[in-house]
Amino acid sequence: MKILLTGASGLLGRSLMHCLAPLAGAPANLIGTAHTRLKAPLQRLDLTDAAAVRQAFAAWRPDLVVHAAAERR
Fold first, then answer.
1. In what order do the strands lie in the sheet with 64-67?
2. What average pLDDT score do residues 37-65 get?
3. How far apart are CA 4 and CA 32, in angstroms?
Protein backbone atom coordinates (compact mmCIF):
# COMPACT_ATOMS: atom_id res chain seq x y z
CA MET A 1 0.00 0.00 0.00
CA LYS A 2 1.39 3.43 -0.93
CA ILE A 3 0.91 5.95 1.89
CA LEU A 4 1.34 9.72 1.69
CA LEU A 5 1.91 11.46 5.03
CA THR A 6 1.79 15.25 5.17
CA GLY A 7 3.52 17.05 8.01
CA ALA A 8 6.09 14.30 8.44
CA SER A 9 8.67 16.66 9.96
CA GLY A 10 6.47 17.58 12.93
CA LEU A 11 6.14 15.84 16.27
CA LEU A 12 3.04 13.88 15.25
CA GLY A 13 4.32 13.24 11.73
CA ARG A 14 7.62 11.77 12.90
CA SER A 15 5.77 9.37 15.17
CA LEU A 16 3.36 8.42 12.40
CA MET A 17 6.26 7.70 10.01
CA HIS A 18 7.37 4.92 12.39
CA CYS A 19 3.84 3.59 12.93
CA LEU A 20 2.91 3.59 9.24
CA ALA A 21 6.10 1.98 7.96
CA PRO A 22 4.89 -1.62 8.52
CA LEU A 23 1.61 -0.86 6.73
CA ALA A 24 3.44 0.54 3.71
CA GLY A 25 5.35 -2.71 3.30
CA ALA A 26 8.45 -1.08 1.77
CA PRO A 27 10.28 2.18 2.46
CA ALA A 28 9.47 3.47 -1.04
CA ASN A 29 5.74 3.04 -0.31
CA LEU A 30 5.75 5.54 2.57
CA ILE A 31 6.11 9.10 1.32
CA GLY A 32 6.55 11.68 4.05
CA THR A 33 6.22 15.33 3.08
CA ALA A 34 7.27 18.55 4.74
CA HIS A 35 7.28 22.20 3.80
CA THR A 36 10.02 23.26 6.21
CA ARG A 37 12.53 21.30 8.29
CA LEU A 38 13.04 19.02 5.32
CA LYS A 39 15.41 16.09 5.91
CA ALA A 40 15.90 12.92 3.90
CA PRO A 41 13.87 10.88 3.11
CA LEU A 42 11.09 13.52 3.26
CA GLN A 43 9.78 15.18 0.10
CA ARG A 44 9.09 18.91 -0.13
CA LEU A 45 5.41 19.76 -0.57
CA ASP A 46 3.75 23.14 -0.03
CA LEU A 47 0.12 22.31 0.75
CA THR A 48 -0.94 25.90 -0.01
CA ASP A 49 0.17 25.43 -3.64
CA ALA A 50 -2.77 23.67 -5.32
CA ALA A 51 -0.82 22.93 -8.50
CA ALA A 52 2.02 21.34 -6.52
CA VAL A 53 -0.45 19.19 -4.58
CA ARG A 54 -2.15 18.00 -7.79
CA GLN A 55 1.25 17.22 -9.31
CA ALA A 56 2.33 15.30 -6.21
CA PHE A 57 -0.84 13.19 -6.19
CA ALA A 58 -0.46 12.45 -9.90
CA ALA A 59 3.18 11.45 -9.46
CA TRP A 60 2.93 9.49 -6.21
CA ARG A 61 -0.60 8.03 -6.66
CA PRO A 62 -1.11 7.21 -2.96
CA ASP A 63 -3.65 4.63 -1.78
CA LEU A 64 -3.95 6.35 1.59
CA VAL A 65 -3.33 9.94 2.69
CA VAL A 66 -2.71 10.85 6.33
CA HIS A 67 -2.88 14.61 6.82
CA ALA A 68 -0.82 15.51 9.88
CA ALA A 69 0.40 18.93 8.74
CA ALA A 70 -0.49 21.91 10.91
CA GLU A 71 0.37 25.57 11.31
CA ARG A 72 1.77 26.06 14.78
CA ARG A 73 1.66 29.85 14.88
1. 43-44, 30-34, 3-6, 64-67
2. 96
3. 6
